[in-house]
Structure formats: C-alpha cells, structure tokens
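Postdoc handover notes: sequence design on the structure in folder B. Input tokens:
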C-alpha cells in the first residue's frame, strides 16, 4: 500500500448516486405516477376575420405597401 497514490485512499465517484437514483426512479415506484407536465405553447395567432369589400381592399392595400417596403430595404 505504500506505493499506491494518496496512501491507498479511494476517490469519490465521478457521478453522483443521487442523480442516478432520480434518473432511474425509486425501485418501488411502479404504482405511482407524477402529474403530467403541460406541453402547450403559448403562440398568439391572429384570428381570420370576415370583412366587407371596402375593408378587404384596404387590408390588401396595406399588405401590398408592407411588401413593397420590405422589398425596398
């Protein structure tokens, strides 16, 4: 033992046993389950509106102006 580094002491494990137990789950947890995690995303979309002819033409003009402005830059 005199020729071993650190006087023969063993270094602690590189991976924590607490994280291993949490990742694999407790042995007796087959009957219990955790509540589901909400995976919904909060995406705000504009709702399609039914509009009259004049309003529709105005929206089309504004959209065309925006497209032309983007092309110009």
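Designed sequence:
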């Amino acid at each position: 033992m005199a020729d071993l580094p650190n006087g023969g002491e063993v270094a602690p494990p590189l991976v924590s046993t607490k994280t291993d137990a949490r990742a694999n789950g407790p042995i007796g947890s087959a009957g219990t389950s955790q509540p589901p995690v909400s995976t919904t995303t909060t995406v705000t979309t504009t709702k399609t509106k039914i509009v009259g002819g004049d309003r529709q033409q105005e929206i089309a003009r504004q959209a065309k102006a925006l497209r032309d402005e983007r092309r110009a830059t």
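Context for whoever picks this up: The longest helix spans residues 53-72. Don't rerun without checking with the PI first.
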